[in-house]
Amino acid sequence: MDAIPPDAPAPRLCHVIKRPDFEGFGFNLFAGKVKTGQFIGKVDAGSPAEDAGLKPGDRIIEVNGVHIGVENHKQQVVQRIKAVANETKLLVIDPQGQLYYAERNVTITSSMPNVQKMRTPATPPQRINNRPDNLKLAVTTAITETNGSSMAPPPKSSLKRVSSAPAPRLCHIIKWRQDAGYGFHLLADKKRVGHFIGKVDPNTPASAGGLKVGDRIIEVNGHNVVNETHKQIVERIKSVSNETKLLVLDPEADLYYRERDIMVSSSQSNVVLIK
């Protein structure tokens, strides 16, 4: 493959940095028994690893810039992670992305133009509380569209555990130049309720800010937009000059919360901040 298509799954370069408030990086490795390679096993809630974007099931491609291939789990890979004190950089790909590149015989590297760079923030993201089993109460009301027609309300009020749920991503996207765009397109899918990221241009603020094709938009600049129109969402994105904050869910996470009638919010404990 000579060029990476703009809609190709994005590998993630996760810069995991230890913090005083958490012991260790907060993730475990496991080696696949059926397939070769090293994978992320468990990611602890509220850990530097979670805040840097690591997810269970991610396959590790590089450690601190070195392609690990099928290196031994206990010896070489762990040693590479420990080679730099208090931090490590892992290039990872989710299972869907791994399949995509394997089918096309493409070797994933950190030099690919669509790599998303993520890192542990210096300050832990705001959480409901510091308990790993915190609860989120979501109360929602019906929204009326500007033309006066009643729209379906978000999922009903519910009390659900969110500590082990898939992490929503709060993508803070900042323009690199005032005369340039963010580098993403919106998509309204007629077969599904909601608004989605239709295209993410490579090497743009959107790609650097962690947006992915297929993400469902939940909030724009702190406002829930689940039942808003395309025009309203665009206006909210433009309401803050040269930057915007989008709370999004990938398809797997979207399905998880829909099945459990949980209303996602940027205030819940497992939101990953990407900037």
From TrEMBL:
Gene Ontology terms, MF aspect: protein-membrane adaptor activity
Protein's name according to its UniProt entry: PDZ domain-containing protein
Keyword terms, alphabetized: Cell membrane, Membrane, Repeat
Subcellular location: Cell membrane
PANTHER family: NA(+)_H(+) EXCHANGE REGULATORY COFACTOR-LIKE PROTEIN NRFL-1, PDZ DOMAIN CONTAINING PROTEIN
GO annotation, cellular component aspect: apical plasma membrane
GO biological process: protein localization to plasma membrane
Every PDZ domain range: 13-96, 170-252
Superkingdom to which the source organism belongs: Eukaryota
Primary location class: membrane
Parts of the chain that traverse the membrane: none
Organism (species): Daphnia pulex
